[in-house]
Structure formats: structure tokens, C-alpha cells
TrEMBL record:
Any GO molecular function: L-amino acid transmembrane transporter activity
Keywords: Amino-acid transport, Membrane, Transmembrane, Transmembrane helix, Transport
Chief localization: membrane
Protein name: Amino acid transporter transmembrane domain-containing protein
Length: 449
């Protein structure tokens, strides 16, 4: 194994090239996992806390983190049992349900990651160039500093970000090469949390803060079932399962993956809880699904310095820039497996690697420019694709148990996961449909990514 050419520089996506490339540390895995987790949902946690109240939201965050740990443990337990092929999420799905199972996973991951990446580009554009919608307009940071110019326009700013910043990162050939950017990304998420806390403390001492509700306010809900609509938001915020195997494959010891996952889940749960609590404490029932819009709206009010609002927006935008490459890797793997199932591994085909990367980046940019807001799309995808990836598919693998290694308690937990996911997602989807028909924007806003 050590005598192969290129062994000293293991390629990206080791799950496609087979074996463990080794060398990555537990801390590097924690940073990459945490980046995958936090990038998916920190923005929506305060809005979910507005729906549920503080106490139920904290319980839900802890419960979903626990179920995520259980589902990843299920995935890792069945890793390596497949009769052929390197370890991957698609591999264990294919082992349990055949080619159709692997293809279904690839499609679900592709939709989830592509949609999320487009959202990231839209948010980056909103922060830097501003946005308009629903009769409101807010200026971006560049617009506030330099005014409306051609080079502060949305199309140009996103294009420069994609070409000059994101493209070099997604062309890196090792997942572990992102350990430093992932570390910075986690620090930026922590900075966003600290800024939110600082603004909240400022408003507390100035006497403008509102005491957050600890329990749901049923008078603001058209139905108690609306409480369930916050569940897919939290589940989506913990959907990182498609990055488990690429990160595991680069660990020096595969057995360290369980510890890395648990450390990451504890870290991210703490950040989610802090951002959700302090964001809700500051904005109260005015908390919007896109909490960055609140920071813009609060400019010049409550005595909050403009610099703090800009720092909060910029730290989050930079966080998304550094999260982008990890999710793009997963998108590229799944699209490649769907389009070129019989081709040689992507990591060994430079031409296909570069061409597919460029095509995906161009497509994501085009969608981010063409679609001003895709919140409506995510009202449904957050309740379907992400829930399947994080809960339903791992549970189904255990219930299928083609190798007979699952215990009775494992199957009971797997069945519970699936039942909870199906019930809560069904209620959320029904609420989305009802809100779309009735034009109830308040209900619809609860499901934003």
C-alpha cells in the first residue's frame, strides 16, 4: 500500500479511492465535523426558539444531537461490512437496499447540499450587497461603506467571491487540507455567538432587552401542531452525515471517529443554544427566520453601534465562505456517482475532477443570481431530504440488518427514530402546504433554513 505513487499525498475523497489515507488528527476531524454541522443551521436557531420557547428548544437541540450521535454510530457500525467497495454512506445504503438505495441517497444528498450552497451564496450576497423583498430593502456592508456602485452589485460581488475565494478552496484535493479553514470557521461561529451575546448584554444594561419566553405562546399559534414545524429546522441544523466517511477515512485511527463526532456535537449544541438564546433575548418575538435581517433592522435602534451589527453580519458571512468547500465536496461526490457510476474514481481523474468542479460552481452561481430567495423551497426540502439523510436512512439500515449485527435495543431505537421523523416531518409539510394555500407568512417563516 505504501509503495503506490501518490501515497504521500492522499487524494481528496478517500472513500472513492479506498482505504484510510491516515495522518489526520482528532482535532482536525472535530473542526471539519463542526464546520459541517454549524454551517447548516445557526441562522435559524433563534427563530426556532421563538416558536418553541427557550426550554423546549434547548431540550429539542439536545435530543436531536443525541439522535444524530446514535444515527452516526449506526452508520459506523455497518461501515466495512459491504462485500466490495470502499467505505461510504452510499456503500452501506447500497449494501442494505441495493443500487436503488445508494442512488436514492446520492440524489437526496445532492439536493440537500446544492440547495444549501445556493442559500450560502444568497446570504453572502445579501450581507455584502444587500437585498430587497416583501416591501423592505436593506443595504449590504459594501453599499453602506461605498454607496451603490457597479462593483458593489450583487452579481459582481458573488462572482468575485466564487472565483477568487471559493474556487481555490474547492479545488484542494484533501479534506484534511481544510482543517485550518475549518478551525477559522468555528472561531467565526464562536465570534458570531460572542457578538450576539455582547449586543444582548448591551441592551440588557440599556434596559431595552425583552425577557424571552421559556415556554410556547399558544395564543400566537393557529394550532398546537405548529410547534412541530420547528423540528425539521433543528434536524437540518444537525445534518452532516454525508461528511462522516470522508473525514473518517483520513483519521490515523478510524476508531477515533466516534469521539470526534461526540465532541463536535457537544460543541455545536452549545453554540446553537447560546446563539438561539441570546438572539431570542435580543429580538424577542420579532426574531426573523434570517437572523441577519434582524441585525440589519436593528441598526440605529436600541442604541446598538452600527459596527457591532456589521461585525455580526460579516462574521457569519465569512463563516459560510469557509463552510462552503466541505459541503461542495459532498455534492461533487454524489453528482459524480450519479453521472459517472462506471468511471474510474474521481480522485484519480484530474480532468473530470476539475471539469465537474467548475460546472457545479457555475451552476450554483447561476442559481444564486436567478433565485432571490429559496426559503419556500427549503420549507419542503428541510422536512424531507435532510430528515431522511440524518434519521430515516440510518434507521432503515439497522432495521434491514442484512449482516445480523443489530441488537433488539438497536432496532427499537431505529424504529423510534423513523417514527418520530415521519410524524414530525409530515406535520411540518402539512403546515407548509396549509400556509401556502392560506398565505400565512408567519407559519411559513418557521421552516426557513
Amino acid at each position: 500500500m505504501g509503495g503506490r505513487a501518490g501515497a504521500a499525498e492522499p487524494l481528496l475523497l478517500p472513500e472513492l479511492s479506498g482505504g484510510h489515507s491516515g495522518g489526520a488528527s482528532v482535532s482536525g476531524a472535530v473542526f471539519n465535523l463542526s464546520t459541517s454541522i454549524i454551517g447548516a443551521g445557526i441562522m435559524s436557531i433563534p427563530a426556532a426558539m421563538r416558536v418553541l420557547g427557550v426550554a423546549p428548544a434547548l431540550v429539542l437541540i439536545a435530543a436531536v444531537a443525541f439522535l444524530s450521535d446514535v444515527s452516526v454510530e449506526f452508520m459506523l457500525r455497518y461501515t466495512g461490512w459491504a462485500p466490495s467497495g470502499p467505505p461510504s454512506y452510499a456503500g452501506i445504503m447500497g449494501d442494505a437496499f441495493g443500487r436503488a438505495g445508494a442512488a436514492a441517497l446520492n440524489v437526496f444528498v445532492a439536493f440537500t447540499t446544492a440547495g444549501t450552497l445556493v442559500v450560502y451564496l444568497i446570504i453572502i450576497g445579501d450581507v455584502l450587497s444587500g437585498s430587497a423583498g416583501a416591501g423592505e430593502e436593506h443595504a449590504g456592508v459594501l453599499g453602506e461603506l461605498f454607496g451603490a456602485r457597479w462593483w458593489t452589485g450583487r452579481e459582481f460581488v458573488i462572482l468575485v467571491t466564487v472565483v477568487a475565494v471559493l474556487l481555490p478552496l474547492v479545488l484542494l484535493r484533501r479534506v484534511d487540507s481544510l482543517r485550518y479553514t475549518s478551525a477559522v470557521s468555528i472561531l467565526l461561529a464562536a465570534l458570531f455567538m460572542l457578538i450576539t451575546m455582547g449586543i444582548t448584554v448591551y441592551t440588557i444594561f440599556s434596559g431595552t432587552a425583552k425577557m424571552p419566553r421559556m415556554l410556547p405562546d399558544f395564543s400566537r399559534l393557529s394550532s398546537p401542531f405548529e410547534l412541530f414545524t420547528a423540528v425539521p429546522v433543528i434536524v437540518l441544523a444537525f445534518t452532516f452525515h454525508f461528511n462522516v466517511h470522508p473525514i473518517r477515512a483520513e483519521l490515523s485511527k478510524a476508531s477515533d471517529m466516534k469521539s470526534a463526532v461526540r465532541i463536535s456535537l457537544v460543541l455545536c449544541s452549545a453554540i446553537y443554544a447560546a446563539v438561539g438564546f441570546f438572539g431570542f433575548l435580543f429580538f424577542g418575538d420579532d426574531t426573523m427566520p434570517d437572523v441577519l435581517a434582524n441585525f440589519d433592522r436593528s441598526s440605529g435602534t436600541s442604541g446598538v453601534p452600527q459596527a457591532l451589527n456589521d461585525a455580526a453580519r460579516l462574521s457569519y458571512a465569512l463563516h459560510l465562505v469557509l463552510v462552503f468547500p466541505l459541503l461542495h465536496y459532498s455534492l461533487r461526490v454524489n453528482v459524480d456517482e450519479l453521472l459517472f457510476p462506471a468511471s474510474r474514481p474521481l480522485a484519480t481523474d484530474t480532468r473530470r475532477f476539475v471539469a465537474l468542479t467548475a460546472a457545479l460552481i457555475a451552476g450554483l452561481y447561476a442559481l444564486a443570481i436567478a433565485i432571490p430567495s429559496i426559503w419556500t423551497l427549503f420549507q419542503y426540502t428541510g422536512s424531507t431530504f435532510a430528515v431522511c439523510i440524518s434519521l430515516i436512512f440510518p434507521g432503515a439500515i439497522v432495521l434491514r440488518d442484512v449482516h445480523g449485527i443489530a441488537k433488539r435495543k438497536d432496532k427499537a431505537m431505529a424504529a423510534t427514530m423513523i417514527i418520530l421523523a415521519v410524524i414530525t416531518s409530515s406535520i411540518a409539510i402539512a403546515s407548509n402546504i396549509m400556509s401556502s394555500i392560506g398565505g400565512d407568512a408567519k407559519v411559513a417563516s418557521y421552516h426557513v433554513l
